[in-house]
Amino acid sequence: MAAVTADVELAGMSATVPRSVGHISGLVRSGGGYWMMLHPLDGVGGAESGFRVVFGGADPAPDRQTPVTPEEVGAALAAVHGPETALGRLRWGTRFSDASRQLAAYRHGRVLFAGDAAHIHSPIGGQGLNLGVQDAVNLGWKLAATVRGDAPDGLLDTYHAERHPVAARVLATSRAQGVIMNPPPDSDAAALREVVADLARLPDGNRYLAGLMSGLAIRYDLGDENPLVGARMPDLALVTAAGATTVAALLCGGHGLDLTLGAPGPVEVGERVDRVAARAVDSPVGAEPAAGRVLVRPDARRVGGDGPGGRGGPAVVPGSAVVRGSAARPRGVEHNSGLAGLSRAESLLLKVPAFTDSGFT
């Protein structure tokens, strides 16, 4: 599918032009060989804010690099909504497709790929931004550890092992969305959409789909059956001896986090791992975090502990899926000279098997 999306101002509107925002399934119209979705940007008529238009069906479809022109948009508007619907101004326009592609390997020697260089998919659902950013966050701390000489053999290869299956799942989800949201009217797609909508109304189904679309339910396979290990650490609101903070704020330095939950205490910024004692005052998962200790990687993934990231604490996000890959569990990694100065906590953050006991220093 090749399509155009644009923001426009209309000089004239027929009775078929939507005056309010509705469900996407009710916005699709066709005519003159085009299909189109049109809605006001302000939800109350669009006279001031303008309209968002998405359309396709032109044959042959222009090359993706061809600029979107007012004439092209005006012709589509008139074909679908009648000659009374006239384009006043084209604010901006771009072309997109539902092509789904993914590199077979995210690493080729010294070259690593992330974001759109590693995968593309339909923009519907807005999953691409989270996907690319999390690629970068996953790769960044591993690259830094490798450059410093702290990384065990194979750490950099876990980037592909952890992120490639995530993108594959997003591509599959995107293709499924494309079937459900098929713009040209399709009775089979409408029937499927109705079934999925019913499932989404159920609390468990809603949580599953929310975790799937947001990426919050992803759990990396770090070699531990505990459902919290490899899952995202919730962004708890915390109070330390230095004042109020959050888990996200504590991770901004790009270090690992050794967090002890219980009473407020000091914040100690280390060379590789920051150690913090804090009291949790709010949790986005809606459960009171258990007191205890949790180790968090720089990309906010929990790797161990005896609290909400280890053997206790609130349950993992419903709908979570273990991401598995051929190198998801590095095996036989030796404790080399580059790791000689690491504490057990630091070694756990780098997943060095020699230091995976329950003690921390």
Account of the protein in words:
Strands 11, 12, 13, 14, 15, 16 and 17 form a seven-stranded mixed β-sheet that branches. A five-stranded antiparallel β-sheet has the order 2-3-4-1-5. The relative contact order is 0.11. It has 361 residues and is an alpha+beta fold. The longest helix has 23 residues, at 158-180. It has three domains: 2-97, 2-Layer Sandwich (Alpha-Beta Plaits); 101-220, FAD/NAD(P)-binding domain, CATH 3.50.50; 237-314 and 331-355, Glutaredoxin (3-Layer(aba) Sandwich). It has helices spanning 70-81, 128-148, 158-180, 187-201, 203-214, 247-250, 344-349; strands at residues 2-12, 28-31, 34-40, 51-56, 86-97, 101-102, 107-108, 111-112, 119-120, 218-220, 237-240, 243-246, 256-261, 267-268, 273-282, 292-296, 302-305, 321-323. Helix 2 (128-148) runs antiparallel to helix 3 (158-180). A hairpin with a 4-residue loop joins strand 14 and strand 15 (273-282). The chain has seven helices and 18 strands. It is 26% helix and 25% strand.
